[in-house]
Specification:
The chain is built from 13 helices and 5 strands. It is mainly alpha-helical. The strands form 2 sheets. It has a 3-stranded parallel β-sheet with strand order 1-2-3. The chain has a two-stranded parallel ribbon with strand order 4-5. Strand 4, helix 8 and strand 5 form a beta-alpha-beta unit. It binds adenosine monophosphate and tryptophan.
């Protein structure tokens, strides 16, 4: 059976790009495959953070993942730092990845430029991500477009490790949706929508109330003509709305534009589709948030199941790389 693995950082509120680019696929893949999903709190340590906020976002993100439709009976859902194999395997990955490879990662360049403090962990971030993926003998990694380069690097690391030390890791592939893989900021359609970006009006949060969603979409930047068609280069704002509408209604952006003549109609249709899409998720989230005890129990069970797989892979890797074992 196909093994699926993916992760999401507990840094700030979940936004529409996370859902359309990744989480929607996570939900559908739990039935066709053996799916493992992880709240990557160790990755959240790579940038300055507040400890109390990290703790509470880890719990609330896990509840959000269940609200969008991850079912701990049909997938393994756990918190990265609860399975210590991740940190240990990351060291093996850091010693397999080349400095030059890590230096070429665009996420590192984006997140490090202009910052006073750049942690060493931000630089080795993709090695920890490779450990996450490879520990589970993963075949497929559902992610948004921005993660393609990290998955390519993970493949290169797996292939290199296998050829140096013998067959150890499965080589994974990225699964990227055809609509919604790159949701852009509504105010700055040249930048991806991001929860940590300082653009509240350009970012739709999953927990935004309907009137806030409508307001943000109606104020979205378009352009000065009034023609609705998909072309990212000449019409970035309109194309972004078409991508969102398409991803929210299970269509391609081109199909989504059928029958829509004017910007006002496009914005109304998009706002309505997003509000409808998020309504049941918001209801379920509020129910789950009322019962943190149950979430804690499920998280503990998830870690146990994850550890079973991860520890077997890590012992194989430790052995093949030449670490001495006394038994
Ligand atoms: P992160 O919040 O950075 O941990 O991302 C979690 C997942 O959401 C990853 O698979 C990302 O590729 C995806 N993602 C984040 N932002 C966007 C976006 N604006 N458009 C599409 N996918 C996104
Ligand atoms: N780097 C990913 C992001 O920023 C999160 C992540 C960490 C991840 N480990 C992973 C994604 C493993 C897929 C698989 O979105």
């Amino acid at each position: 059976m196909t093994r699926v693995f993916s992760g999401i950082k507990p840094s700030g509120a979940v936004q529409l790009g996370n859902y359309l680019g990744a989480l929607q696929n996570w939900v559908s893949m739990q039935d066709e495959s053996e799916a493992v999903y992880c709240v990557v709190d160790l990755h959240a340590l790579t940038v300055p953070h507040d400890p109390d906020e990290l703790r509470s976002s880890t719990l609330s993100l896990t509840q959000m993942l269940m609200a969008v439709g991850l079912d701990p009976d049909r997938c393994i859902l756990f918190v990265q730092s609860h399975v210590q194999e991740h940190a240990e395997c990351a060291w093996l990955m850091e010693c397999t990845a080349a400095f030059g490879e890590l230096r070429r990662m665009t996420q590192f360049k984006d997140k490090s430029t202009g910052n006073e403090f750049v942690s060493a962990g931000l630089f080795t971030y993709p090695a920890l991500q490779a450990a996450d993926i490879l520990l589970y003998d993963t075949n497929q990694v559902p992610v948004g477009e921005d993660q393609r380069q990290h998955i390519e690097l993970t493949r290169d690391i797996a292939i290199r490790f296998n050829s140096r030390f013998g067959d150890t890791f499965t080589v994974p592939e990225a699964i990227i949706p055809s609509s919604g893989a790159r949701v852009m900021d509504l105010q700055h359609p040249e930048k991806k929508m991001s929860k940590s970006e300082d653009s509240p009006q350009g970012t739709i949060l999953i927990l935004d109330p309907p009137d806030a969603i409508e307001k943000k979409i109606k104020r979205a930047v378009t352009d000065s003509d009034d023609e609705v068609f998909f072309d990212i280069d000449t019409k970035p704002g309109v194309s972004n709305l078409l991508s969102i509408l398409g991803a929210a209604t299970g269509k391609t952006p081109q199909e989504a534009s059928d029958g829509i003549e004017r910007y006002g109609d496009l914005k109304n249709a998009t706002a309505e589709a997003v509000v409808e899409l998020l309504k049941p998720i918001q209801e379920k989230y509020h129910d789950l948030a009322d019962d943190p005890g149950e979430t804690n129990r499920l998280i503990a069970k998830g870690a146990e199941k994850a550890r079973e797989i991860a520890s077997a892979t890590l012992s194989r890797a430790r052995n093949n790389i030449g670490l001495f074992s006394h038994n």
